[in-house]
Amino acid sequence: LLRQLMDVMRIEGGNPLSGTIPVSGAKNAALPIFAATLLSEETCVLKNVPNLSDIRFMAEILEHLGAEVEQTDPTTWKITARNISHRAPYDLVRKMRASVCLMGPLAGRLKKAEISMPGGCVIGPRPIDMHLKGFAGLGMKVKVDKGYIFLDAEHACGNPIFLGGRHGSTVTGTANVLMAAVLTPGKTVIECAACEPEVVDLCKMLVSMGAQIEGIGSPTLAIRGVDKLGGCTYTILPDRIEAGTFLIAGAMAGEKLTVTNLRVADQGALIDKLKEAGVPLTINSESSITVSKSSEPLKPVDVVTHPHPGFPTDIQAQMSTLMSVTPGISIVTEKIFPNRFMHVPELLRMGADIAIEGPNAIVKGQPKLSGAPVMASDLRASAALILAGLVAEGTTWVLRIYHLDRGYDKIDEKLRAVGAVIDRLPEKDMPKDLNPESA
Fold first, then answer.
1. Which end of the chain has fewer CB atoms at under 10 Å, N or C?
2. Could you give the residue numbers annotated as active site?
3. What percent of the chain has pLDDT over 70?
4. Is the model's pLDDT at 124 over the cut of 50?
5. Where do the H-state alpha helices sit in 209-342?
6. DSSP type of residue 184
7. Minimal CA–CA distance to 66: which of 40, 86, 51, 39?
8. Pairing mode, if any, of strands 7-12 and 68-73?
9. Does the pLDDT value for residue 140 go beyond 90?
10. pTM reported for the whole predicted model
């Protein structure tokens, strides 16, 4: 792991992408689904799980809580949570913010939970007040003390709960309250529930375990609590953000790039913007899209991020990179996370022309980008810099790529297989005069 933390990515730009690139399972679905295995004493077998550091951290936390966790092949995990603890300490939780979604399953099954408060995030605050509001709405006693959240669900019962916040519904909050509600007596109705495909996937997994949930995919979820849940075998949906990243890679550097193992139904907002920009795009089936090289210059587009089914915030940085080499002026507006332009200073080092005005990025498309050493600040910014490197003249070095390992399963291998010249190297192999961290 320490070696991976010190790796860098080297990309030689200007090489066209051609062939087929597959999409792995969805990280943002897999993490709450891993947590949901705590709701049953029986074995859950999870398939199409991406091979990511966040998944391994979650598996480590489940083992610490007492679950038996086994990775039976690269994409399959078997989890049996027969005897588990209600306490998740800081030393484990601090590694991964998504571990906050353990609260719901622990409180639902054990009627109590004690979990360290999650830390901050570089892309902006992600408060968990909506989670705690939801738990209190179920009649739980909620206490925050010395960095820990204490939940007492002994007298919890089903109730109507509204989960809307200033930026819309809360995805992880919806998942957390949902997982608590499936084992809480009575009927819970969650209003302003998140409608993201990852929440739908969690609902389907819970139903396969015996949960009673109505309104799946809508902003109103009705849950009738049951006494216990069983085990299941469940296949996690494809990662729509990874799929979107590869579609944009095809728009930027593709001759003819086919992205497979995706769900076309989850790509509506991105497909709309790519077509508006003039990207030649063919939908081959419900799970395959081909992006071809355009014979005409692409056109600038304006993008505004919204909760699903709007344009995903997790694809904003990648779309900004595409617009940075598209003639004309595009405006990208970020409405979900206030600090999600951390990739912009690094793109400027590569020759992009982007100005930040509050929640807006004003992008003036440039004829070309130039390879440079750049620093990844977060997961999606990392992907944006990789995309920039694919089309830049010369060599691009991307540092701190451990962010990539949180959300992209072997992205360098997948891109190399379709023609990219990209290598993962130990940081010591990077020329010292190019490495700002060696100064």
1. C
2. 121
3. 96
4. no
5. 240-253, 268-276, 316-324
6. S
7. 86
8. unpaired
9. yes
10. 0.95
Strand order in the sheet with 232-235: 68-73, 76-80, 43-47, 232-235
For strand 112-116 and strand 141-145, is the pairing parallel, antiparallel, or unpaired?
A: unpaired
What is the Cα–Cα distance from 194 to 176, expressed in whole angstroms?
11
Q: Which residue has the tokens 């940075």?
A: 324
DSSP, res 197: H
Tokens coding 81: 């949570």
pLDDT of residue 125: 43
pLDDT value of position 438: 62
**What is the per-residue DSSP string for 11-42?**
EE--PPEEEEEE--B-HHHHHHHHHHGGGBSS
Place of tokens 């598996």: 59
Contact 214, 192 (CB under 8 A): no
Percent of the chain past pLDDT 90, that is, above it, reads: 84
- Calpha distance 386→379 (Å, rounded): 11
Count of CB atoms within 10 A of residue 121's CB? 12
Return the number of other C-beta atoms located less than 10 Å from residue 408's C-beta: 26
Average predicted confidence (pLDDT) for the chain: 93
Of 114-128, 134-148, 343-357, the least confident: 114-128
Cis peptide before 118 (omega within 30 of 0): no
Residues 178, 221: contact at Cβ < 8 Å?
Answer: yes
Which token pair is 195? 């409608």
The confidence score (pLDDT) of residue 439 equals 52
pLDDT digits (tens, 9 = 90+) for 18-59: 999 999 999 999 999 999 999 999 999 999 999 999 999 999
From CA 432, how far away is CA 429, in angstroms rounded? Answer: 8
**What residue type is 293 in one-letter code?**
K
- Cα–Cα distance, 294 to 316 (Å, whole number): 22
- Confidence category of residue 327, pLDDT binned at 50, 70, 90: very high
60: β partners = none
Whole-angstrom distance, CA of residue 71 vs CA of residue 67: 13
Residue with token string 């390992």:
405
Round to whole Å and give the CA distance between 104 and 387: 37
Instruction: Give the SS3 label for residue 65.
Output: coil
